[in-house]
UniProtKB/TrEMBL annotation:
Top-rank taxon, per record: Bacteria
Protein name: Uncharacterized conserved protein, DUF427 family
Pfam families linked: NTP_transf_9 (PF04248)
Source species of the chain: Aliiruegeria lutimaris
Domain DUF427: 15-104
Length: 115
């Protein structure tokens, strides 16, 4: 495991909102911190309305976590391209991320917040 990446259970209940809809709500989210970057919240797939997410063709590679597979979010009024990602086969030490999805929270169209 990489020393500058930490994964822990996120305290409280977390939600994802996009296009006026709640896409996810979880008390079992994970918080990933990587160095000085802002924490990223990963939601278990079973707590996400996956019908709103369409797999995209984009794949990114992180040498510390593995290949990230992206999803676009379908709202009533728009498609938010590559607004979520998942490490389907994370590398050794990052296994807790398997079956979890993170959302691009720095977008004006997606909100990830603790309630």
């Amino acid at each position: 495991m990489v020393d500058h990446i930490k994964i822990r259970k996120a305290d409280g209940t977390w939600v994802v909102r996009a296009g006026g809809a709640v896409l996810a709500e979880s008390r079992n989210a994970l918080e990933l911190t990587e160095g000085e970057q802002a924490p990223v919240i990963y939601f278990p797939r079973e707590d996400i309305a996956m019908a709103f997410l369409d797999p995209s063709e984009q794949i990114g590679h992180c040498p510390h976590m593995g290949d990230a597979h992206y999803f676009s979010i379908q709202t009533e009024s728009q498609t938010l391209s590559n607004a979520a990602w998942s490490y389907q086969s994370p590398i050794e030490g990052m296994e807790p991320l398997k079956d979890h999805v993170a959302f691009r929270a720095n977008s004006p169209d997606v909100a990830v917040e603790r309630v």
